[in-house]
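ok trying again, last paste got cut off:
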Amino acid sequence: MVEILGYLSALIIGVSLGLIGGGGSILTVPVLVYLMGISPIMATAYSLFIVGASSLVGGARYALKGLVDFKMAFLFGVPSIAAVYLTRRYLVPAIPDEVLHIGSFIMSKGMLLMVLFAVLMIVASLSMIRKKKEPKAETKKRAAWVTPLVVLAEGLVVGTLTGLVGAGGGFLIIPALVLFAGLEMKMAIGTSLVIISTKSLIGFLGDVSNYSIDWSFLAVFTSLAVVGIFLGSYLATKIDGDKLKVAFGWFVLIMGILILVKEFI
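nice, full thing came through this time. structure:
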């Protein structure tokens, strides 16, 4: 029954991606760990493939509509791709199994990744809950002269975080593309999906040589997420995405807090 619930969650993850353009990937690791019984280290690896493949489908849909800035995707994506690959290939395997030991408290490698993921979930949820304001004129004007080094630095940070926790990082990429690159929101979402798909799938390659991959499980779980994307895209024409995004944000916030409670208590 729990396993069935896990596969249904894969569908829900895809629906969220298709309906509100993001958010669903933040649930992939908790679903894999707590419902499918996969270790946190393998869950972050599998999440990269699932998020990457799902985002690839979404990104292709935006590209066909002309809503992808490939120049910015390259500028932001190259350092992000390099960071996520190096993080998965070298940094994650280098983290010791016992990270911290104080008295009777022991923080394992898996616990560290789940705590970091929970914190990221809480930050992501707050970005979904609060109302977005239109960028002020000064912000748009500033975007014209901001050096590409800022975008490159943002790509490195997002790539490292993606490599550590296996989340797409769209809630970090989209604001960066809007504020620093001056892209419109729909263009930023499409460009973000292309960046996420590329860096996640290439980052996953860093895991292939380190771990034994269950390809059949990945194929089934990812296929359900992709089906969910198409279902979510259809529902987007029927449901107010902004209201749903806020409700989903509260759900992610509660999930993040529960993960912290579970890991520490």
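cool. The first strand starts at residue 98 and ends at 102. The radius of gyration is 18 Å.
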